[in-house]
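During the reporting period the student researcher (J.K.) took over the structure-prediction task from the postdoctoral fellow and processed the backlog of single-chain submissions. One of the processed entries is reproduced below for the supervisory committee.
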Amino acid sequence: MKKPTAIDLFAGAGGLSLGFELAGFKVIWSNDNNKWASATYDKNFGKGIMHLGNIENVKEFPKADLVIGGYPCQGFSLAGTRLVADPRNKLYLEFARCVRQVQPKFFVAENVPGMLTLGDGKIIKAMIREFEGINGGYHVKYANPPLKAMDYGVPQERQRVFIVGVRKDIGFEYNFPKKTHGEGLKPYVTLRDAIGGMPAPKEDEVYNTGYSSIYMSRNRKRGWGDVSFTIQAGARQTPQHPGGRPMTKVKWADTHPEEDRKFKESNEKYHWLFQGDSNRRLSYKECAAIQSFPKDFDFDGPLVEKYKQIGNAVPPLLAKAVAGKIMEYFKNQG
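J.K. obtained the following structure tokens:
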């Protein structure tokens, strides 16, 4: 069978591309406006596929069986401003423009769970209406609740919304993949499974600056037998390595006696304290492994940019699971 083709918008380092290629697709064209992510993509997928620049400037997209992409999610994030007027929210219209021009058999859009509730649900409804009306119509469904990466062999709690469109004339019904890991299924992949055998990182592979009060306001350390916290794009917020001593919760008053006098008992503060000096953040290579990137996947750019690319990526194994259900259509076509 000839491999069905795909184009990847807002591709970043290529997590979504990699997942779809693992499922049997061939990515023939991609786009992103970050030079470091573009360089990473070139290293791992070969030059000539990635086109660096703003998508608004792309006038013509190549024909393909599939359009995929994770348009920027900062405007939708639960951690962001959640403003409906955020201009980044409008980039889904560029995704829709591509679908309208290419007329693929399928499209897949990925985003953060906060998208479902932004603007009291008006944003996701607007997206679905836009997508359903393209070129005579697409059958569109989205994952609600969001898919959990840990349920598909990715060793972290990450959750993501996938929107899948199927062109009405091809007569195929898409169903989201069933869980493969969890109770009654395969055991969850743990930190030990993912990074237990990795060598100690080099000094330039770990972000080792100080910790912010935001970081110290919660536990950031999981054990070897656990799945990881979500890997974020900000290097400073990277979880702790499972080795070393656990973080210990202490009262604000125990470490800030003078400042504590300013607060009433009802406003008593707590924070987490590191015990010992063996604690460190996960290295960027460990973060990549937790995202399910293969260990030979090569990231380009300064250290903080590597962390950013990894944290922004779709876990390849999660993308592969979503893609596998679409591949069923092409296998049935012979």
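The committee noted the following: The mean pLDDT is 90.
J.K. will present the remaining backlog at the next meeting.
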